From TrEMBL:
Pathway: Purine metabolism; urate degradation. It catalyses: urate + NADH + O2 + H(+) = 5-hydroxyisourate + NAD(+) + H2O. InterPro entries: FAD-bd (IPR002938), FAD-dep_Monooxygenase_BioMet (IPR050493), FAD/NAD-bd_sf (IPR036188), HpxO (IPR047712). Keywords: FAD, Flavoprotein, Monooxygenase, NAD, Oxidoreductase, Purine metabolism. Belongs to the FAD-dependent urate hydroxylase family. Residues 2-340 form the FAD-binding domain. This is FAD-dependent urate hydroxylase. Transmembrane segments: none annotated. Its cofactor is FAD. Its EC number is 1.14.13.113. It is an enzyme of class 1 (oxidoreductase). It comes from the Bacteria. It comes from Microbacterium phycohabitans.
Amino acid sequence: MKVIVIGAGVGGTSAALALQKLGHEVVVYDRMRENRPVGAALSLWSNGVKVLNWLGLGPQVAALGGRMDDMAYYDGHTGDELCRFSLSPVTERTGQRPYPVARADLQALMMDAVGPANIHLGRQLVAVADDGETVTATFADGSTDTADLLIGADGARSLVRDYVTELTGIRPERRYSGYVNYNGLVAADERIGPLDQWTTYVGDGKRCAVMPVAGDRFYFFVDVPGPSGVVEDRMAALEHAFGQWGAPGVRALLDGIDPDESLNRVEIWDIDPFDTWVRGRVAILGDAAHNTAPDIGQGACSALEDSFALGIVFATSTLGIEDSLKRYERIRTERAGDLVLRARKRAHETHAFDVAATQAWYDGLRREDGTGVIRGIVGNIEGSPVELGASVLG
């Protein structure tokens, strides 16, 4: 069986690897001309890491991941510790340590595993056609390719999604989440936080957070509520948002950022859950199917779950491509949609869209011993297809 995958990000490359494991011919196309992913890094929680283990990349991913033993919250104005606790219960209950990883490093690893000869960059999809026997992809340069099925992992503005949902009368639209995320990589610095800790400073519905990644670096991500469509100087915007905070760690982070080296500005959008992911021999996965805000750290993990489910279905079902794709859709739509809504709810709580709710969260952090946070993290992992219904231990 020949498969076309549109998109060489985490979702597309993991789908390609899952289908290659089964002996299928896979060709990946992406409009990008080089490995320059949006966003500096990502959180790989245990469910996402387990999929990468299943794909045969476990040791390499572990080498890319930062050692994140603890988690702590601090008051952004004063620097006072609100709570600090171990993340070891996540590992113990799921059977796998989570890793923050630099996105470009992970994507390069996965693209290399797929095989450079199987990936074609600089190819923008413009049309999809399914004649019931084969699927043809047409690209902006006039070239075409034909396969037995096509997987659209072409991101939040997916053309493949438009094709899949065209006959439903429903056109999923992106929805602004109400805040801007600034992110990048900086040298690890104990003035910001311990080198083995997920450190977060909070206040006024805003946050500054760092996670350790390989190479003695911190991945930083900073949230600022505000309107979309604003053109601004990124460092000036950060100084305006956080320059008056008194926490020394926040000042050390701002001073450590080199905007010419690593500073992204990303408006956060998501898409209301929908349940049409398949049309004939064409299916979508990743952000194309469930564009999710990063507030629970499950966006990339959910894409990896898609690829796991896709691989399992094609390994075990024998009634044809269209039947297998519908089974994939049935496995994934409810859980992926639930994670979208959980992330949306979390964003509402933490970004002062309801000021009283955010203040109650801050007050609760002062009493937090880790139990509640761990419950939430593990709760996002429970129900993952990779857990096979039983591998999260109480």
